[in-house]
């Protein structure tokens, strides 16, 4: 999806790190309680240090909803997260994304037209009332609205299991988009087999499947992926284990099944943080997720060795777009009374997207805690 971020004024592009820090601190001070800055774990340190709260995509959606007194929520993350915050917050609250080009390539792999076409095609071959659509948080608000309107829910990597358990109380099949890996890894962890799953390729008629495939499959997994997480390979695990036979491999469930299967632990970014915290001092951990989080964990736990599972650096280029100059720019504009880079979801979309997000929050709240 094309989103255009206008170039920043020279004041920000030519400023030193110290100047930017001073401006951000002054703007935060001036805005006080009216401002709430959220930071996703993949943000760079120069941004993260200003976040009032940090979290994974699930936690950030809860936090956004819990701050009705904040007029401005500056979301240091990517576009789909800011949209979700807009859906979940009150009308008087304005959500701001410091760089409009901070999208998510995985979210862009499923668009509403393709999903509607898939639904229509499937309705021609299966009992559509048995099909429950589940969208990963990493998707546009339009897709969240689609699942809300069609009896489904949103999930994140924190609660995919609970949401899928719930989905099978609503129907006997799931259409899961846009990340095939999270869908597959969660389904396998629930005890389903590869034979229960088919990949839906939106570029082909009936997703490239036969009618028999569509009828037999319990999981229809959208052909989408994260370009950051799919870089991790089983060979990286083999190499790490050869060097560190007692080492621990922790992977994000956006990694392929082959990687998750060999990993010692699999979970969301919040889970990964807890896994590193829980490891004994002296442990060696290889983490399969975005490099800024891995580097922060290494810095914060000097008594453990924390490395990226892929020795070649693996950043999320869209998360990386949010930097101190953009943060300073949006905050100084707010101080001047101008809201720049506001993310809004239209009311029609908002209504059903909220239903889908709220279902996720309720399911997660009710699920047994691990
Ligand atoms: P989390 O839900 O674990 O924060 O992951 C979001 C994401 O985009 C991972 O690539
Ligand atoms: Fe999207 Fe992957 Fe970046 Fe997460 S890491 S925001 S899924 S591109």
SSE topology:
Blueprint: H1 10-13, H2 17-31, E1 35-40, H3 45-48, E2 53-55, H4 57-65, E3 72-76, H5 79-88, E4 94-96, H6 112-123, E5 131-136, H7 141-149, E6 153-155, H8 160-170, E7 173-177, H9 180-189, E8 197-200, H10 211-216, E9 219-222, H11 234-243, E10 248-251, H12 257-262, E11 265-266, H13 269-278, E12 284-288, H14 291-300, E13 305-308, H15 324-335, H16 347-366
Iron/sulfur cluster (SF4) binds next to loops.
Bound compounds, please?
A: 1,3-dihydroxyacetonephosphate, iron/sulfur cluster
> Which structural class matches the secondary elements?
alpha/beta
What is the CATH class designation of the largest domain?
Alpha Beta
Helix coverage percent: 40-55%
Number of domains: 3
CATH homology superfamily name of the largest domain? NadA-like
Strand content: 5-15%
If strands are numbered along the chain, what order do they take across the biggest sheet?
A: 6-5-7-9-8
How many whole angstroms does the radius of gyration measure? 21 Å
Mean pLDDT, rounded to whole units? 97
The succession of helices and strands, N to C, reads: HHEHEHEHEHEHEHEHEHEHEHEHEHEHH
CATH fold-type name of the largest domain: Rossmann fold
The low-pLDDT segments are: none
Categorize the overall geometry: globular
């Amino acid at each position: 999806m094309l989103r255009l971020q206008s170039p920043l004024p020279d004041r920000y592009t030519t400023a030193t790190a110290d100047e930017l820090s001073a401006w951000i601190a002054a703007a935060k001070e001036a805005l006080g309680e009216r401002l709430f800055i959220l930071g996703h774990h993949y943000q760079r340190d120069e941004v993260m240090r200003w976040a009032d709260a940090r979290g994974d995509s699930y936690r950030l959606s809860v936090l956004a909803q819990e701050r009705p007194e904040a007029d401005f929520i500056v979301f240091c993350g990517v576009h789909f997260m800011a949209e979700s915050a807009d859906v979940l917050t009150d009308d008087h609250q304005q959500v701001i994304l410091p760089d409009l080009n901070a999208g998510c390539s995985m979210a862009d792999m499923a668009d509403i037209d393709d999903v509607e076409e898939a639904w229509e095609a499937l309705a021609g071959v299966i009992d559509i009332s048995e099909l429950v659509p589940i969208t990963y948080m990493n998707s546009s608000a339009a897709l969240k609205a689609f699942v809300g309107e069609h009896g489904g829910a949103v999930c994140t990597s924190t609660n995919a299991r609970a949401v899928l358990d719930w989905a099978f109380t609503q129907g006997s099949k799931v259409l899961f988009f846009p990340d095939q890996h999270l869908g597959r890894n969660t389904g396998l962890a629930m005890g389903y087999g590869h034979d229960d799953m088919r990949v839906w390729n939106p570029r082909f008629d009936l997703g490239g499947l036969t009618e028999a495939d569509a009828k037999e499959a319990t999981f229809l997994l959208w052909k989408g992926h994260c370009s950051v997480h799919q870089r991790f390979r089983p060979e990286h695990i083999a190499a790490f284990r050869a060097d560190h036979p007692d080492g621990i491999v922790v992977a994000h469930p956006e990694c392929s099944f082959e990687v998750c299967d060999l990993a010692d632990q699999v979970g969301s970014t919040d889970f990964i943080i807890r896994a590193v915290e829980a490891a004994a001092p002296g442990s060696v951990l290889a983490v399969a997720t975005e490099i800024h989080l891995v580097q922060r964990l290494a810095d914060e736990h000097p008594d453990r060795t924390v490395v990226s599972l892929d020795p070649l650096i693996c950043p999320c280029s869209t998360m990386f777009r949010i930097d101190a100059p953009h943060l300073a720019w949006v905050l100084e504009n707010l101080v001047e009374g101008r809201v720049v880079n506001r993310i809004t979801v239209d009311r029609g979309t908002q209504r059903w997207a909220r239903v889908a997000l709220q279902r996720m929050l309720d399911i997660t709240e009710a699920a047994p805690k691990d």
